[in-house]
Amino acid sequence: MIDDEALLAEFTLNIRKTHSERLMPLIDAMLKESGIEREQLEAVAVAAGPGSFTGIRIGVSTARALAQGLSIPAVGVSTLQALAEAVPSPGAFICPLLDARRHEVYSALYRRESLPPRALEMVIPPAAVELGPFVQRLKSYGKPIVFVGEGLNSYGSYISEALGEMAVLPQAPQRACRAAWVALCGRRLLAQGHPSSFHELLPQYLRRPEAELRLEERKKRDAQCP
Amino acid sequence: MSRLLKTPVYILGIESSCDETAAAVVEDGRRICSNVISSQVKLHAAYGGVVPEIASRRHLEQINLIIEQALAEARLKLGDLSAVAVSNGPGLVGALLVGVSTAKALAYAARLPLIAVNHVEAHLYANFLTGAGIRYPLVALIASGGHTNLLLMTGPDEILSLGQTRDDAAGEAFDKVARAMGLGYPGGPIIDRMAAQGNPAAFDFPRAYLDEEEGRFDFSFSGLKSAVINHLHHLRQKGEAPKPADLAASFQEAVVRVLVDKTINAAREHNAACVLLAGGVAANSRLRFLMREELMRALPGVPLYFPPPELCTDNAAMVAAAAYPLYRRGIFAPLNLNAHAGLPAAHRLLNGQG
Ligand SMILES: [Zn+2]
Fold it and tell me: What is the rounded CA–CA span in Å between residue B308 and residue A136?
C-alpha cells in the first residue's frame, strides 16, 4: 500500500499455502495494522501475470472485485516489469525470469535509461521462451545483465554458467515480485491514462491453454491430409 | 448484529463451479429477483467436454459483468444486500477459485457477510424457488454432468447424504455415449430427443444396482457406458450400422431405471413426504415421466417436484437460496475460505454440528 510519498505497508508471505487462503486475510491484516479503512483506498493494482495461471486468477479476481465493491479504479501490472522496476542502476540491462514449466521461462529484457527520469525501456517484450536460446540471445548484448525473479531459484546456476561474469544474480530477498513495486507501477499507469475500469483488467497469461493449442494443431493436420 | 434484523433478506449468489458463470439475487430464500447466467457450452463444444483452463479464463472475463447485471436487474445496490454467497465446491477447482476469490473480495469491500454453499446441496434448493409445497422428510435426487447424489432432508436445517456415484456422473455417461455415437455435445438433450423415436427394450444393457448393504443407494455408470461403447465397436467391426434411436433409448432406459428405482426405494425407506429432482439430468423427459409414474404406483400421494429447465442446470439463484438458512443461523465463512474440488455433499449438518 502506497500513498503519494511513501510505502505505507507491504505484507509478504512466501510459504507453501494457497494464495486463495492467504490473500484476503493478508489484505485485511495490512489495512487493520495501518489503521486505514478499506473505503479510503483510491485504486487497486495487481500483478496480472505472467505466472501460475491459477495464482494470477486469484490475484486478478480479487483486485477486480475489490474495485467493483469499492467503486475505485483497478489496473493490472506486468509481473515482469514490476520485478525489473526494483533495479535502479542507470544504464543497466535487467532480465526478470519466472519459471514457466515445460522447459520454458517467462522473461523479457529491459534497460534502465542512463539519464533522468531513468525510465525502463523494453528491449525484448515479455514472452514464454525456451531458456537455452534465450540466454544465447542475451549473450549477444555483451553487457552485464541484472537478473531478478524467482526463476533464478531453479535456473540461477545455469545462467551464471552460461553467461559467466555478464550475469549479475541478486540474493533471494531481491528475487520475489514485491507488492510495493506493483502498486508503484499501477499508479504510474493510471496517471498515464491507462484504462482503469475493472472490466478491462485482464490477466497477462502469455500462454494459451494447452487444449486450445492441441485442437488447433489437429485442425491444421486435418486440413493438410484430408 | 443489526444486519440480521434487516428484512427482506437479499442474498447475492455467485456460481462458477463448471461451465456456467452465474450471479443472482434471491429474496428471503424463495423469490428470484434476478438470475443471470453466461453459459460456456459453445466454447467447450469443440472439445467434447469442459476444458478446465478455458473455463477458468472465461469465468474471470465474465463474472463481474454478470454480478453487475444481476444487481441491476434486481434494482439493488451492493449496500442493499444482506450477504454474498458462493459455491466453493465440488467442481473444477480453478473455476471455483474465480467465484470464491470474487465473492470474498466483493463481500469484504461492501462489508457484507460471506456464505459458503455446497454446490450439490444448492441444486436441491432450486426446488424452493418454484413455490413447491416442500414437506419433510424429503428425498432428493441430484443428477448432472458433474454429480449424481441421493440426499435426505429431515428438516429445513439437516441434509444427509444417502448415496452418490462411485465413478461417472449420470450426465457424464450421457455425454460420453453421445460422443461415441458421434452425436455432439452436450449429450443429454440430444440423446433425450433421439431416444423418443427409439425402442428402449431393443438392447439389454447392464444396470448396476450395487446391492450390498452399504452401497445400495450408491450409483455406478461406467460399466453401462463401456457396454454401450463396446456394442458400437462390435457393430462397426461387423460392418453393421447401429440404429441410433434404439441405442439411445436403450442406454437412456438403463440410466433412468436405476435412478428411479433407487430414489423410490430411498423415499420408501425414509418415509419421504415428497421427492425432489434437480440437476441438469432432471430435465430429461424420460426421467421425469418414469419417476412420476413409478412414484404414483409405489408411494401414492407422495408428490414429485422438479425445477424448470433453467433452474435444473447450474445457476446462482439456487446458491442464494441455499445460503438463506445459513444466513438465518449466522453461519458465515471466513476470509480464508478456499475452493474444494471434492467437497462432499451433506458432509455436515446445517446447524453447525458434525
Ligand atoms: Zn451442478
Answer: 62
**In this structure, are residues B105 and A67 in contact, taking their beta carbons and an 8 Å threshold?**
no
Cell readout for A60 is 486478478
Which of A21, A27, A41, A57 is the best mutation test for B, with the most CBs of B within 10 A? A57
Ion ligand 1 neighbours (CB, 5 A) are B 144, 314
CB contact under 8 A, A212 and B54: yes
Enumerate domains of chain B plus CATH numbers.
10-125+312-329 (3.30.420.40), 136-306 (3.30.420.40)
CB contact under 8 A, A66 and B65: no
Are B57 and A38 a contacting pair at CB < 8 A?
Answer: no
Going from the Cα of B16 to the center of ligand 1, the distance in angstroms, rounded, reads 10
Contact B115, B83 (CB under 8 A): yes
CA dist B313 and B145 (Å) reads: 9
Domain boundaries, chain A: 2-79+178-209, 87-168
If we measure between CA atoms, which residue out of B313, B307, B319 comes closest to residue B132? Answer: B307
Comparing A18-22, A66-70, B90-94, B266-270, which segment has the lowest mean pLDDT? A18-22
Measured in Å, how far apart are chain A's first and last C-alpha atoms? 58
pLDDT at res. B242: 76
* B166 Cα–ligand 1 center, Å: 17
**Cβ contact (<8 Å) for B335 and A54?**
no
- Going by pLDDT thresholds of 50, 70 and 90, the confidence category of residue A172 is confident
Closest chain A C-alpha to B53 CA, distance in angstroms = 6
Which grid coordinates are listed for B47? 472439445
Cα–Cα distance for residue pair B38/B19, rounded to 1 Å: 9
Query: Complex ipTM, two decimals?
Result: 0.95
Among A28, A57, A211, select the one facing B98 at the smallest CB separation. Answer: A57
Whether residue A96 is preceded by a cis peptide bond, meaning omega within 30 degrees of 0, is no
pLDDT digits (tens, 9 = 90+) for A22-55: 999 999 999 999 999 999 999 999 999 999 999 9
| Integer Cα distance of A41 and A62 in angstroms | 14
What's the topology of domain A87-168?
Nucleotidyltransferase; domain 5 (3.30.420)
Q: Give this prediction's pTM.
A: 0.94
pLDDT tens track for A75-103: 999 999 999 999 999 999 999 999 998 88
